What does this fold into?
Amino acid sequence: MTVEKRKLEHIDIISTQNVTHDYNYWDDVDMVQKSMPEVDFDEIDTTTTFLGKKLKMPILISSMTGGHPDTKKINENLARGAAESGIAMGVGSERSAILNREMGDSYSIVAEYDVPFIIANVGAPQLIKQSKKALTNEEVDYAVKLVKANALAVHFNFVQELSQPEGDRNSKGVKKRIGDLSKKYKIIAKETGAGFSMQDALEFKQLGVSAIDTGGRSGTSFAAVESMRSREKADERKERVGRTFWNWGIPSPICLIYSNVELPMIASGGVRTGLDVFRGLAMGATLGGLASTFLRAAIQSDREVSNLISQLETELRTAMMLTGSSNLKEIKKVRRIYRGRLLEWMNQI
Ligand SMILES: Cc1cc2nc3c(=O)[nH]c(=O)nc-3n(C[C@H](O)[C@H](O)[C@H](O)COP(=O)(O)O)c2cc1C
It folds into this structure.
């Protein structure tokens, strides 16, 4: 199985099948509203600064793709939308371009647009020796330069790797590598749907990472994605591992409490709407990141991506107005009520 082919299978499965966690914990975060907010909707200020760069809105198109000629258009549609609306975007794991430089333009297309913040991407498992050799410093540098990145996301996806027919199984040595890379790049430690614990976050801080993309449980489940892939390959054992761990992980809102170690945080994992972005910001995040929601738009057209971004903006502003928040700082003061299964976690952490 080539990396390129796997990328297309992920896109196909995620855009056509139900592979989300069975419960979205963002729905358990209620906001206390104001009927007399004293705010003018049109004057609401949604600008923010992330790792030194100004953004028009606190939204990130989370890392997804690249690495196959068919993915170039998806990245282009996303980049055009991100540039037009002044939001941040990431590209998917760049390993396939590192291994096969001909794939480079499916990623570097994003650098042709005026995206205010671009995030390069490599996998933590690939930073150390597995059955294949670890990425070298030169290869990581190639990935950063290829997309003219402002920061480098190192993604953690061990629940996916262990559910995958061809997955990596070693994690020894990742910490040292992250510590070394943090001396050269702005590193964003990024989960992909299972979420970081408080111990993880404290260690990232010690290692010198610049931000944490919390990537918790509430949205896309990569154990589920891999279970589907295994089923298609008639690998019954892995299919069952993926099913068993389908709902593995720390709920996304909890990750924001765990990861609050005075580094910028990105709320992600199951963020679907501008209200979810608002919820994440209220709980301390600087940005809200969406992946699968953007994927479905980007597969269609650049216009769909723009429509989605303005929809998110309208919903974010609506939540801001209804809570009397005229800028993003004021969101943090909004009173929240936690309920349902989220509260069960809250009561025990
Ligand atoms: C099609 C697809 C491909 C992805 N590939 C990557 C990747 O290469 N690197 C990465 O860090 N995250 C990757 N992700 C994970 C997302 O960035 C995100 O953490 C996860 O999907 C949870 O967000 P969601 O619930 O909004 O989809 C991918 C997600 C999707 C939907």
Q: What stands out?
A: The pocket of flavin mononucleotide is lined by residues 10-11, 14, 62-65, 92-93, 121, 153, 155, 190, 192-193, 215, 219-220, 268-271, 290-293, 295 (CB under 6 Å).
